[in-house]
Amino acid sequence: MVIELKGLPTITTIKNSATSNSLFSSESQFSSDNVLDDESTSLDTPDDPEIKSVLNKMEELNRTNEADIRSVTSKISSSSQAGRSSSPLPNGNNRYEELLPPRSNSLQPTVEDDEDFDLWTIWGNLVKSWELEWKRRPSCVKELARRGIPQHFRTIAWQLLSGANVKLLHENYSEYLRLSSPYEKAISRDIPRTFPKLDFFKDEGKGQQSLFNVMKAYSLHDREVGYCQGSSFIVGQLLLQMPEEEAFAVFVRLMENYRLRELYKPTMTELGLCMFQLEMMVQEQIPDLYMHFNNMGFDTSMYASSWFLTVFITTLPLDLANRIMDWFLVDGIDTIFRIALSILQQSRIDLLQLDMEGMLKYFQREVRSRYENDHELLFTIASRIHLNAKKMKKLEKEYLSKRTKDQEEAIELRRLRTENRLLRQRIDYLESESSALADRLVRGQVDLAQQADTCLNISHELNILRDINYDAHRRLEDAHQSIRELHMQKRRNLRDQEVQVDDISMIEHIHQLQQELIETHSKKADLESTVREQKQRINELESANKRFKECPPEGGVAAIQEELIRVKMREAESSLSLKEMRQKLAEFEQQWQAYMNLRGIQHFNQTRESAHSPPLSSHSVDEELEVIPPPPQEPCHSTNTPPTDQQQQNNNQQRKNTKTRLAKIATIIGAAVVGGGGGGNNLNEVNNGETLEGWNQRELEDNFIGLRIKEADTLAELKEMRQKLMEMETQNHVCTNQLKRQDDEIRRLREEKENCVQTEAELRQELRDCERKLLGLQSELKEKNIMQRLKYTEALQTVAELRTQLAQIESKKAEKEARLQIRGSSVFDQDVDSVFSFLLFNSREPRF
Questions:
Q1: Domain span including residue 118
Q2: Does residue 835 lie in a domain region?
Q3: 88 by DSSP, 3-state: which?
Q4: 179-205, pLDDT tens digit by residue?
Q5: Mean pLDDT of 406-421
Q6: How many domains does the chain have?
Q7: Concatenated DSSP letters for 200-258?
Q8: Alpha-carbon distance 837 to 833, whole Å?
Q9: Is residue 353 part of a domain?
């Protein structure tokens, strides 16, 4: 009889079918209501109508899938593959056949189809009466699970084998999803690396969110373990078979009842125990491979840690990992040991030929491809491997004792390291103290040497002061002697001279002369400083004048010069026009005066004729009229020089005089007319018509001439005003240009000042740098001086030691000579060369 492994459509086919939701809902309902749990109540009787209805629905759906061409094709291909990879049941387990329905020779399907039908029938009956079959024949159920659970029954079978009860954990799971976990970032980071090639777990897929929810819920359910890398692969494998709640319940049972929780604890003590047990088994069963691993330094954890943490999910293909999980749910962690030993036994020859890097690549790549198409060989060898429980317990005790010993050694090592660190700190402290004492000793020697030098200097200075004191006493005695002699001489001089010189007045006079001399010197110094300043100012002005002369005029200056020339030309033209106007006015006044004189004479003659009086001459009329001579001609001004204020006042005075003359002329004419009228009334009466016409004509002429005179005056005043305006504009332009030049000069001086300030700052900075360098050099010089003194002190000590050695040698030499003299032999000559060589060697050792 052959047990089919992959004879039915896979779980993904059911999920993609139209009836997948109803199937999984029925399975979930069945599992949540009827699954065994070791800590809760058991299932109801197998005759429950709900269970029967669920199983009937499952059978109908399976028949529908079998009727589909694609499902049948997949079934046939997978059944043939499973037939090739299946193995017969052992002879000792023929009691399974009573669970199978009897065969009929009239059936036409192939053997694989019959076996598939039998396997489906077995698991269908087993699920219906799980509690009864599990109690009656648990070994048969386990053996059947080891042979492989059909894909469609894994959802329920894994829950039943693990003893998961979804109903008890459903409320807790919903509560966990509403909480936040401290491991969310780590879970989110590892999720994309879980089954990245499967569409169900790709980015933004439903599988990633379900995987995140289950891992988050368990990290909150078991806070001691929290989240560990590797557990996500087991949860992903469960999610490929069942929904979130069922996967969470099965994962909780796997962690609690199958020692996975101990593997995932932060200390990972159980993982170390498994590594040790596997290593001892390899040493016992495959010694040559064990020796090869030791020679290459290939530790067991380098290839087997992922086997225990992920139950071969990351090492072997997914369908093979599902088959291993079937076995794992029956036998627990012993399954991993058997599969691991089976892989190592089959790969022994290949591994013995590889180095460490090659073995790593082999376990990562070659193992997967080796068992991808041949599953039953692995399980056949694994089923033959026998694990001794007593020996496993013994290995566990050895590991625990070894671990305890290692922990004690680690504690002792930490204690020794702590003591070593404290001793090193003590040594460092003592070294620092010794270095400080050495420094103090050196400083004491230096201070002693300095004090010795100071004492020598003081003694030398004391001797010098003694000499100076002796000389001072000697000079003082000489001075006293001289004073006595001078007193004697003075007394003799006072006797000889009658007039005594007043010493006080002489001293005051000398002081006064000295004060005057000092003042004279100070005045001389002030005058010299003033002369230097004036010379410096003259030099600056000369340089500025020279610079202005050498520099060509700028564009603005040239334009100003041209404008000045044009202004001067306009001024000259206006002056000429003004002169012409004044000349015309003078001529006009002369003509007017002549005209008025002529009219006055004519009128006077007419009056005389009418009065029978002789006519007046023009001379008499001029005298009566007090004709004022015409104004003198104005002096000719330079075309480049504007008229002065005095000249303007003269011009105004001339205009006033002209107006005064005109007024007088009009008065005289009026008087003449009045007088002529009083003397010749008869004539006026006779010639009334002619006189009236003549006077009207003369009045018009007078008005016309007056208007002409006013016009001339107005034009003259207008030209004068324009001349003044032009002069003021010229002065304004000149002042503006001067202000601009002064602004430019001020700007230039400010720039020079800023440059000077910057240069001064740079020089000050350089001076400070030089001072710092000087201080550094002085400190270095002091240090060198101290070092030289230290070397000198050491040299003195060395010389003293050499002298001591020389004295010892001389004493030995004298002793030897005495001995030779006593013995009566002369061996002294033999040791002279050695003594001198020793002295020469010792004299070369010190370095001054």
A1: 1-163
A2: no
A3: strand
A4: 999 999 999 998 888 888 888 888 777
A5: 84
A6: 3
A7: GGSTT-HHHHHHHHHHHHHHHH-TTT---TTHHHHHHHHHTTS-HHHHHHHHHHHHHHS
A8: 6
A9: no
